[in-house]
Design brief:
Belongs to the formate dehydrogenase gamma subunit family. This is Formate dehydrogenase subunit gamma. By secondary structure, the chain is an all-alpha fold. It is built from 14 helices and 2 strands. Helix 4 runs parallel beside helix 10 and helix 5 runs antiparallel to helix 7. The longest helix has 34 residues.
């Protein structure tokens, strides 16, 4: 049998030609196949595919619809609300914070500050009506002053950091830039979180020490009617009605409100749900804004707004003239021997012969 072999150089072109013609035929068949599907058929196929995917449990559309509804999914994380991917109340909280608390809170703090500045520029500080006698009365013991200054400095730290966290995006960031503000915000957050518990404890100590002298007295309503002496002199006990409003409404009521809500926000590991955190923040921010606005008036009167007021809390004692002018009932009780002019051993050592007798 005779075998005829084809040279390799002749076989290579033949093989390439065969593959070329096969490729042309395949592309032609695909073109005919797809050209036979009309636009109406393609639309029908798309609708059918969409309907089929809508019925499938793993389809993205129904999953995200369920997620946005606030439903809980099965997850490996353990805890309350761990299966809730999107919290619907979060947007409501965001609108309340940005559109109401920040807007109206900013106006309240600004108006309180402007009102105090107007009083200072138009009326000036309250001066003593007579010269000082040099005879002293111990108004605050060292323990009372320690409780007051602990609460005061922690309050200033919390108020300053809180205002920066709430309004810094609109006031600080445009001036210093976002990078610098981010560092300031991180510092403020940590200071706020760690000083908060100290402030809450100082409120309890302050309340125990001062509550006995902030109970209602006979001239309290008269003090309010005469606007704290603006329309005539009003005798007052150790604390007048304005100081009592600050004690009960500010330190006690608002202090408890910001402390309780602060603990809820400070310790999310207590497993509270997000709605509780959002509600706590609304109460916390609102109470803090009112608290700060009231504190501006208290700080003004206790520093540059009244002659001798800062000395009372700084040194612990006041002059006889100051006591008679601002707290006449308290002064009369001291003169009658009902209340001691010296309330501590340390005060007697410091004042010496200057003690009112």
């Amino acid at each position: 049998m005779t075998t005829v072999s084809m040279p390799l150089k002749a076989a290579a072109p033949l093989t390439g030609a065969v593959f070329k013609w096969l490729a042309i035929v395949m592309f032609a068949m695909l073109a005919v196949l797809f050209s036979g599907v009309s636009h109406a058929d393609q639309t029908a196929l798309s609708k059918e595919q969409a309907a089929r995917q809508a019925e499938q449990p793993g389809n993205n559309a129904p999953v995200w619809r369920a997620a946005s509804s606030g439903e809980s999914f099965v997850t490996q994380a353990k805890g309350r609300e761990t299966g809730v991917l999107i919290n619907k109340s979060g947007e409501v909280w965001r609108e309340i914070r940005n559109d109401r608390i920040i807007q109206y809170g900013g106006w309240l703090v600004s108006l309180a500050f402007l009102a105090i500045m107007a009083v200072y520029l138009l009326k000036g500080p309250i001066k003593l009506p007579e010269k000082r006698t040099g005879r002293l009365i111990e108004r605050f013991t060292s323990a009372e002053r320690l409780a007051h200054w602990t609460m005061a400095f922690s309050f200033v730290a919390l108020g300053t950091t809180g205002l920066l966290l709430m309004f810094g995006k609109y006031v600080v960031a445009p001036v210093l830039g976002l990078t610098a503000f981010s560092w300031i915000a991180i510092l403020c957050k940590n200071v706020h979180n760690f000083v908060g518990p100290l402030f809450s404890v100082s409120i309890i100590v302050f309340f125990v020490m001062y509550v006995k002298d902030n109970l209602p007295e006979k001239n309290d309503m008269l003090w309010l009617k005469k606007a704290g002496g603006l329309f005539g002199h009003v005798p007052a006990g150790r604390f007048n009605m304005g100081e009592k409003v600050w004690f009960w409404g500010g330190v006690t009521a608002l202090g408890i409100a910001v402390s309780v809500t602060g603990y809820i926000l400070d310790f999310p590991n207590f497993d509270q749900v997000r709605l509780t955190m959002q509600q706590a923040h609304v109460v916390h921010a609102t109470a803090a804004i009112v608290f700060i606005s009231m504190a501006l008036g208290h700080i003004y009167i206790g520093s540059i707004g009244m002659e001798g007021a800062l000395e009372a809390m700084r040194d612990g004692y006041v002059d006889e003239t100051w006591a008679k002018a601002h707290h006449e009932d308290w002064y009369n009780d001291i003169k009658a021997g009902k209340v001691p002019a010296v309330r501590s051993k340390q005060g007697a050592e410091v004042m010496g012969s200057q003690v009112l007798s």
